[in-house]
């Protein structure tokens, strides 16, 4: 059954089948107003998916058929059978995700991943930037810890949560950023990796910290050129030229207004004090 959700400021209808990742997660984004639905995602389970007809624009699996009014992305098994197929129009008003569960090792995880992937495309089209990061709310503002997978962004966020009171985890994997007329905000979404750690909240952005593993807690304030490099490395990038132009305009504002830092962080709470001292220009009470 399709339900309507408001994620950030995007009203979207989603019909999914598996409860593993979205149940006890997406409910806080439920919306009663069905009149403003701009996008619809429907997941269809089938024991056979026809091979899409059309010329693909790449030679490796998964394949893409790009036409003027719609895009089709599909993945094949080693035997040439279709195991997943996504079709959507240019505005993502109607998205159909077909899955053949018998060819997928973990259908629930794949459904969650594909819905999340499409949602991030929709978010980009609606003016949001998706950064690979763990985002916390601290003193009413958002701090993002960004890094490649398995580098320590979630661990660093948890160190902050165990060091200070009244911290909320906004999103533990892909928080959304949007430039408003006067401010820059971070939004939660139900697509936060397998952890389900997210909040349906909107918080002004204070700072972005790019984390590297290290032996000392050396913090560096980033210049504009390095900010661009780190953002490009850790963000989801659109493949549509118009959306890219829109995204670049937002990135320029973020780079101009938001302080960004890098830290070669140790795997302990001392990294929290090092970052806090630089961002807020003050010692923490618990610092030795």
From TrEMBL:
It comes from the Bacteria. Gene3D superfamilies: P-loop containing nucleotide triphosphate hydrolases (3.40.50.300). This is SynChlorMet cassette protein ScmC.
């Amino acid at each position: 059954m399709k339900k309507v959700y408001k994620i950030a400021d995007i009203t979207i209808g989603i019909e999914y089948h598996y409860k593993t990742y979205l149940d006890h997660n997406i409910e806080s984004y439920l919306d009663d107003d069905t009149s403003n639905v701009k996008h619809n995602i429907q997941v269809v389970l089938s024991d056979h998916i026809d091979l899409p007809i059309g010329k693909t624009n790449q030679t490796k699996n998964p394949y893409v058929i790009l036409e003027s009014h719609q895009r089709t992305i599909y993945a094949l098994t080693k035997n040439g059978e279709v195991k997943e197929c996504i079709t959507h129009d240019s505005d993502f008003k109607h998205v159909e995700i077909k899955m053949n569960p018998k060819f997928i090792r973990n259908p629930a995880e794949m459904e969650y991943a594909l819905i999340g992937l499409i949602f991030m495309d929709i978010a980009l089209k609606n003016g949001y930037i998706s950064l690979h990061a763990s985002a916390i709310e601290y003193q009413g503002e958002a701090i993002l810890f960004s890094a490649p997978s398995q580098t320590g962004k979630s661990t660093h966020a948890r160190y902050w949560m165990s060091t200070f009171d009244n911290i909320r985890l906004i999103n533990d994997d892909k928080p959304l950023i949007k430039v408003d007329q006067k401010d820059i905000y971070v939004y939660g979404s139900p697509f936060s990796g397998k952890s389900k750690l997210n909040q349906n909240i909107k918080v002004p952005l204070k700072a972005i910290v790019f984390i590297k593993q290290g032996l000392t807690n050396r913090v560096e304030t980033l210049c504009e050129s390095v900010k661009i490099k780190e953002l490009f490395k850790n963000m989801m990038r659109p493949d549509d030229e118009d959306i890219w132009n829109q995204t670049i305009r937002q990135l320029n504002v973020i780079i101009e207004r938001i302080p960004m830092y890098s830290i070669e962080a140790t795997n302990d709470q001392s990294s929290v004090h090092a970052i806090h001292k630089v961002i807020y220009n003050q010692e923490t009470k618990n610092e030795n």
